[in-house]
Design goal:
single chain, 134 residues, alpha+beta, six-stranded antiparallel β-sheet, 45% helix, 22% strand, globular, YdhG-like domain-containing protein, YdhG-like
Length: 134
């Protein structure tokens, strides 16, 4: 998509892909929203991005041979065993188009990320209250 205009919405992003890839991306989106129903959607860095509790939860992007899923380095470390059959980098996972996508693992990762974000947000709010009352 680098030579095309950046889509304004996730719907635009998905509809710009070939039909067989659209199905996969639509399921990524459904899975993320099922795992983090309060997540907000947007396009960030040219790809579908989801935030919850003040921080990003995950992103995904269609590539030539795979979908890149970007939940951040901590999540990849925590779910290392479940992801052992896939190529990973510091913050991303490659799900090749020719292999079934483990949506159950993606759902677990997103739930984990949302819970961690919620914990961090609650800790920040708690510290603010303590500082305010001193």
């Amino acid at each position: 998509m680098s030579d095309q205009a950046i889509p304004a919405t996730i719907d635009e992003y998905i509809s710009a892909q070939p039909p067989e890839i659209q199905k996969i991306l639509t399921e990524f989106r459904r899975t993320i929203l099922r795992a983090a129903p309060d997540a907000q959607e947007k396009i960030a860095w040219g790809m579908p991005s989801f935030t919850a509790y003040g921080s990003y939860v995950a992103q995904f992007a269609a590539h030539k041979n795979h979908v890149g899923f970007y939940p951040g380095p901590e999540a990849i470390t925590v779910f290392e065993k479940e992801l052992s059959g896939y190529k990973t980098s510091k913050g991303g996972i490659q799900f090749p188009y020719e292999k079934p996508v483990p949506y159950d693992v993606i759902e677990k990762i997103v739930k984990y990320r949302a819970q961690e974000n919620q914990k961090r947000m609650m800790e920040k709010e708690s510290k603010k209250k303590i500082n305010k009352n001193q």
